[in-house]
Amino acid sequence: MGVLAEANLRLDANAVDYVLLAFYFVLVLGIGYLARRQVSTSLDFFLSGRSLPAWVTGLAFISANLGAIEVMGMSANGAQYGMPTAHYFWIGAVPAMLFLGIVMMPFYYGSKVRSVPEFMLRRFGKPAHLVNGISFAVAQILIAGANLFLLATVVNLLLGWPIWVSVILAAVIVLAYTALGGLSAAIYNEVLQFFVIVAALVPLTFVGLYKVGGWQGLVDKVTASPGGAEQLNSWPGNELTGFSNSFLSVVGLVFGLGFVLSFGYWTTNFVEVQRAMASKSMSAARRTPIIGAFPKLLIPFIVIVPGMIAAVTVTELVQFKGGANVEGVDYNYALLLLMRDLLPNGMLGIAIAGLLASFMAGMAANLSSFNTVFTYDIWQSYVKKDKPDAYYLSFGRLVTAAGTILAIGTAFIASSYSNLMDYLQQLFSFFNAPLFATFILGMFWKRMTATAGWTGLVSGTLAAVGVFILAETGVWDLPGQGASFIGAGAAFVVDVAVSVAVTYATQPKPEAQLVGLVYSLTPKDSLKHSDTGEDSGWYRKPGLLAGIVLAITILLNIIF
């Protein structure tokens, strides 16, 4: 970690910045307190009573993903690899978000399930449900730990407090508003945090571009830096994938990232799906990820570009990228160092609030989905079955606290990675890629059996872990994020192969039990949404909105 609190890395905040920060924290806790008034049942606490409008859930959908990991991790990636990082958005997010809105959301919302594991329970029965519930809960605690570690790093850099003090303080604030107001508090705070993050990063990008002499100045500087002009084009992205062969790199990006990792993340990750499930109608639920896709297209310009600017202007980073060993500096600090060099006081306060907002949004999203899955899918299903609703409501608050304590523990695992994006993509290849394979097969293939559901899931996860061990022990040399792309691909292929083999050796469920859970057996009318009243108007048509987003995505891929 190095000694971060050295004077040269300390952000020079003054009274104005601290007042702005304090105001922001009061606001966040106030929202939690106000949201508490709306919580009278467990459905209110875990799914906001399904009452929120599409624009609120759409912004929360994108903000839940715009956590510390996204902001710091993607700017770290920008500093290390440059424009190929945009694949995480244009290939690795938008197509899957549109698929979720158009194809998957009618299933989730229409079947009235409260979580993704609950969908697994109805389709495949208890073993698959339990495996999915436990693996999801573990993943959320590991990811919350990564968010918490980054949050503590900023507080440490700002105030010079020890990392462990910062970790505990940050955890307490997030716990306070998530335990008070449940999902509504998390969602309303996510909308606020979205605007705070944008208000912090847009000025930073413009000031940075001004400093390097505009876009052309950045192009010249990046071309002359280690990594060279390759960092200015998103394709073929060899540095990012770790492949020297351009064709393999493109295949890795399109199949590993664009298909397996991204569809696995966006369509089966309950952190995201939970936001759409809180919408007030089927139409709003379908529009949620599509509305979120609009800002998602533009976010690379405010997170990747500052990372690239930092890599060519911040003295310590320039030395680090050139191969020198600079104590206490790595790519994860790209954004912080750029703020230190460019922003005046006052602006610095807003920028720091923006960063803290992004960490809290990410961690609150992890906690609010963890408490739902643990309470409904593990505790209520297998431990304490028929308790009154008030019991589950108070248990949910207790689990939120327990999850926070566990996240404090996992924060120290995250601290061992110099680029946190590597760590995260690894986790996604373990947990999301196999789940996506099982999901898609189960949704479109009615013959698939319950036993195939859980055996496929377990063997897919083991395949990804196998690739990780081979890469870590040096048996297979995969630099960059290649190990996670290959791990995700392996998890997907193994899961499908095992599921197909086991299906033909076991008995399927009767078709009557699969209505609403398998595409071909579900009446088309039940998947339609209303287009009258609050849902009328061309700008509320999910299909049309998705078409517009897709056209912009293709255009951006051609330009860059």
Descriptive report:
- Its main location: membrane.
- This is Na+/galactose cotransporter.
- GO terms for molecular function: D-glucose:sodium symporter activity.
- There is one protein chain.
- The protein is mainly alpha-helical.
- The protein has a single domain, classed as Sodium/glucose cotransporter, CATH 1.20.1730.10.
- Helices cover 74% and strands 0% of the residues.
Helicity, as a percent range: over 70%
Query: Roughly what is the average pLDDT, rounded to an integer?
Result: 80
Order of helices and strands: HHHHHHHHHHHHHHHHHHHHHH
Number of helix segments? 22
Count of distinct strands: 0
* CATH superfamily caption: Sodium/glucose cotransporter
> CATH class, anyone?
Mainly Alpha
Per-chain topology:
Elements: H1 15-36, H2 42-47, H3 54-65, H4 68-81, H5 87-90, H6 94-110, H7 116-124, H8 126-159, H9 163-212, H10 214-224, H11 238-241, H12 246-268, H13 270-277, H14 282-313, H15 315-321, H16 334-342, H17 347-383, H18 389-414, H19 420-444, H20 450-472, H21 482-503, H22 542-559
Task: Considering the chains and any ligands shown, give keywords for the structure.
transmembrane, mainly alpha, 74% helix, membrane, Sodium/glucose cotransporter, globular, Na/solute_symporter, Na/solute_symporter_CS
Condensed summary:
The protein is mainly α and 560 residues long. The chain has 22 helices and no strands.
